[in-house]
């Protein structure tokens, strides 16, 4: 190789390094600009509604008088709906991801399922609402209930949980699987004792991302008949006599935080706009709390594995 060829290679490498550095700088600036806009909008919303965030705001039902209106029925409904969503979507999604990645044969059927699951993750939420309206409300006769809403949002985030579970399992090196087999472990022992502990953090991140999306969805729950004004709470899940647990609340009407915010924003009074800003701040805090719990659990599990 001549000196001229070496010089051309060095020149091309330097050019590519400069392009990479320029791309990194542009990407960093775009991310920084987006974060600043998001933080600015969030702070503006919080400042607009912070004075309304009082204990009475959490313990009062909606009212035609903005100074007396609260989010009691909305945050209780959101909590119950998200509980049903998590109970249904997380075990089913994680189990499906494990089966598709570890047990299913790698053939055209598996490829077809993977393509469809990936595509379902990008389907607009209103489509899930229409599907739930026909299946859960009309065919299964679940009505406009917390159970129907939980099932709807579970369908919405199920592809996300499945995809993230499969990606988390793929990230585990095959040497770990081979080592478990070499020690005489069965396939399920290998997955339960070795693969899942190492991939739990990534799986949990995907679950929280899905639940964070579900907690802010409005179109699906409106489609199945969520109420925009509700001044009562569902029945308590607990009761004084045996078996001490009641499932009547699953059939109760409900509302959620995004719908309550939409109801207030659509009113002309400025005080209702402040109520909506306060409710939005509470919703963001709920989402941040979920993410904080996920970060802590991920750190705790990884620390346990390391030790």
From TrEMBL:
It is a multi-pass membrane protein. Gene3D superfamilies: MetI-like (1.10.3720.10). InterPro entries: MetI-like, MetI-like_sf, Phosphate_PstA. It is found in: Cell membrane. The chain crosses the membrane at residues 21-51, 71-100, 120-140, 146-165, 195-212, 218-235, 247-266, 272-297. This is Phosphate transport system permease protein PstA. One of its GO terms (cellular component) is plasma membrane. The lineage of its organism: Bacteria, Bacillati, Cyanobacteriota, Cyanophyceae, Oscillatoriophycideae. It comes from Lyngbya aestuarii BL J. Residues 75-294 form the ABC transmembrane type-1 domain. Its main location: membrane. PROSITE patterns: ABC_TM1. Belongs to the binding-protein-dependent transport system permease family. CysTW subfamily.
């Amino acid at each position: 190789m001549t000196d001229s060829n070496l010089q051309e290679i060095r020149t091309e490498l330097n050019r590519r390094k400069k392009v990479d550095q320029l791309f990194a700088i542009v990407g960093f600036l775009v991310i920084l600009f987006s974060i600043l806009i998001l933080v600015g909008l969030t702070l503006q919303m919080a400042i607009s509604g912070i004075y309304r965030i009082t204990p009475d705001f959490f313990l009062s039902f909606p009212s035609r008088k903005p100074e007396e209106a609260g989010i009691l029925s909305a945050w209780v409904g959101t909590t119950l709906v998200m509980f049903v969503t998590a109970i249904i979507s997380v075990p089913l999604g994680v189990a499906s991801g494990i089966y598709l990645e570890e047990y299913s044969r790698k053939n055209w059927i598996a490829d077809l399922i993977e393509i469809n699951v990936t595509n379902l993750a990008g389907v607009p939420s209103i489509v899930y609402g229409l599907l739930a309206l026909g299946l859960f409300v009309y065919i299964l006769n679940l009505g406009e209930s917390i159970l129907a809403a939980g099932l709807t949002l579970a369908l919405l985030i199920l592809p996300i949980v499945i995809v993230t579970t499969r990606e988390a399992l793929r990230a585990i090196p095959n040497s770990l699987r081979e080592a478990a087999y070499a020690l005489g472990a069965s396939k399920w022992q290998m997955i339960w004792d070795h693969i899942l502990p190492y991939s739990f953090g990534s799986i949990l991140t995907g679950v929280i991302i899905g639940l964070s999306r579900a907690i802010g969805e409005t179109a699906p729950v409106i489609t199945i008949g969520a109420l925009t004004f509700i001044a009562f709470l569902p029945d308590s899940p607990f009761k004084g006599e045996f078996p001490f647990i009641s499932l009547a609340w699953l059939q109760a009407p409900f509302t959620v935080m995004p719908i309550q915010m939409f109801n207030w924003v659509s009113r002309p009074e400025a005080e209702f706009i402040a109520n909506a800003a306060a409710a939005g701040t509470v919703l963001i805090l709920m989402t941040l709390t979920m993410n904080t719990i996920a970060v802590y659990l991920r750190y705790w599990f990884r620390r346990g594995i390391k030790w």
